[in-house]
Amino acid sequence: MSRIIEARGLNKVYRRGSEEIHALNDVDFTLEEGKFVSIIGPSGSGKTALLNMLGCLDTPSSGSLKLIGTETSGLEERDLVRLRRDNIGFVFQQFYLMPTLTARENIELPLLFSKKKGQRDRIDGVLEMVGLSDRGDHLPSQLSGGEMQRVAIGRALINDPRIILADEPTGNLDSSTSQLIFELFRGLNRQGMTLVVVTHNLELARQANVMYTLRDGRIAGCRDLSGRQDTQDSRGAASRAA
Ligand SMILES: Nc1ncnc2c1ncn2[C@@H]1O[C@H](COP(=O)(O)OP(=O)(O)OP(=O)(O)O)[C@@H](O)[C@H]1O
Ligand SMILES: [Mg+2]
Questions:
Q1: CATH number for the domain harbouring residue 150
Q2: How far is the CA of 236 from the centre of ligand 1 (A)?
């Protein structure tokens, strides 16, 4: 398996006035292609900071980060943007959908930025992957929270990324809807997608292949869960309404 992300000695220091906040302290993190990794930890432990570094939404204060074999530390913003756009799909707690666009149009949006407009078949395929084939023409206000997050996941998938990074994707959803979203992630992972998902919810985090625990900006634990009993059946999860 190839190493799709390789981070060594990542540090992130935020400055607030004269105060220095060490959000990440000497973090090593490797991600093998095809894995589903969860990151758990108390509020303020650095989960979002780490995810933002891994996705090149923010730059580390020091350390090295290789993404798909490319060292990112010396890259110009333009190259960083391209690396991010071509390889990473992001999902957030607040779905960040455009309220005036339908589900289908929201999913299509990244194609406009990458100048690949159209591709009707591809949009239909993604709508099906996220279980929204019959909701394509609905506006976000006509969708449930779980359905809105599915649209956001579809939007993350449309550029065919190598990795999905999700920060508290179920933070605004009830527990059964959250479970369905995780089943969707597991289904995507079975189809070969690499995922890193931050969550507060231990029960959900344990459904990944590997679970990292962050504490005070450090990796406090890493558990390989791939040998666990696989009792959840995620087939067909996408077709159940969320
Ligand atoms: N832009 C910023 N400026 C200053 N401090 C920041 C900034 N972003 C994050 N921090 C601080 O860095 C630390 C790590 O924050 P981070 O957002 O990564 O935590 P988290 O684990 O995602 O927490 P939560 O579970 O509440 O989302 C916290 O102490 C936070 O206050
Ligand atoms: Mg956070």
A1: 3.40.50.300
A2: 36
CA nearest neighbour of 151 among 130, 169, 180? 130
Asked if residue 238 is part of any domain, the answer here is no
Tokens of 229: 């009993």
Cβ < 6 A, ligand 1 pocket: 14, 16, 21, 23, 41, 43-49
| pLDDT tens for each residue of 182-219 | 999 999 999 999 999 999 999 999 999 999 999 999 99
Q: Which helix (H) or strand (E) holds 177?
A: helix 175-190
Q: Taking the model in full, what pTM does it have?
A: 0.92
pLDDT score of 228: 66
Extract the tokens encoding 47: 């989960």
CA distance 56 to 34: 20
Which ligand 1 atom is at minimum distance from the Cα of 12? 12
**Which two structure tokens, joined as six digits, stand for 83?**
């690396």
Please state the domain count of the chain.
Answer: 1
